[in-house]
Amino acid sequence: MAARARRHEGSADVHPRRHSEPVAARARRRGGPVAASLLALTVAVSGCAASQGSASTAAPAGRTAERTAPERSAAPATQPAREAAADLPAPSAVIPKDPARLARALTDTTARLRRAIDDWIRDGDPAEGRAPEPVVLLALHQQRIYRHLARNPKTASRTYPGLSKALAGEAEANVTAGRNLLSLVHPVSRPARFRVREPEPADVLLKHFRHAERRFGVDWEVLAAVMFVETKFGRVRSPSHTGAKGPMQFMPGTWAAYGMGGDVHDTRDALLAAANYLRASGAPRDYRRALYAYNHSWAYVDAVRLHARQIKRDIRNYYAYYNWQVFVVTTRGDRRLTGP
């Protein structure tokens, strides 16, 4: 998580790029987290962080990734779904290749996703269990469209003109963040297993983000974007190959310096420690400097800031990112580890 470039993209593609010895050495002297996050391409594109960018984690060639049983029961929300189930995109629905069709698909998917999120917030309880099926399936489809655009910049540039001005700006931000995170990913070529689980409920995480913001003055949207890129909101449970642990991917030395005696695997403790470290590294006065201390990659810094701006612009983007899934980039293509 800190002091090291990414390897996952919203999910867990590990194999980060290594920074020069002097930079890493300085980070160690400062207690900087030398971490390994999940570049969810989120870019959640990840999401950090495959198809689109949210870190992905999947076992290579023909091997299935190990999924651990959820550590808490997470029953889907039971409120009435306003979107007809028959009209929802399947988890592996074909993504259009033509820019005009991509623009229509992204416009339709985003509009329907926002309506479904509004229904969830109004009629359901984002503090309990999983999101309802329409939110889950539409968010996954949106993520896969963005991952496709992040991997195909020429197609993306021809897709933007077919979008409304507001959606074009949002799309360009998500695609740029996803492309940044994908640039830090090295495909997995050997069989691998990754431990994943259901994240804590969206509004439980939101409560933790806001508590950390009040205590350390670090914008909750930035903390959310970091967690999104690092572990897709805690879905990835495996330590990185460099030894970074927990939902915010702390190296042991950094945790000892900034963890305040907490549990690196506890979400609330990890978020407080991340806010503590970012504040000590320059936030909120200089987020670029603080995020670079957290992870020595300007591509990572820019991706996190782009996602944070999207969340700040419309909180529904937080709920959309929350439902983006973990992918792993392999030499034979992207593999999805979580979700429907």
From TrEMBL:
Instruction: Name the Gene3D superfamilies for this protein.
Output: 1.10.530.10
Span-the-membrane segments of this chain are none
A GO molecular function for this record?
A: peptidoglycan lytic transglycosylase activity
The organism's place on the tree of life at top rank: Bacteria
InterPro entries, A to Z: Lysozyme-like_dom_sf, MltB-like, Transglycosylase_SLT_dom_1
CDD domains named in the record: Slt35-like
**Region (Disordered) location:** 1-31, 51-96
Q: Could you give a single Gene Ontology term from the biological process aspect? A: peptidoglycan catabolic process
List residues of the Transglycosylase SLT domain: 209-296
Can you say what this protein is called?
Answer: Transglycosylase SLT domain-containing protein
The source organism is Planomonospora parontospora
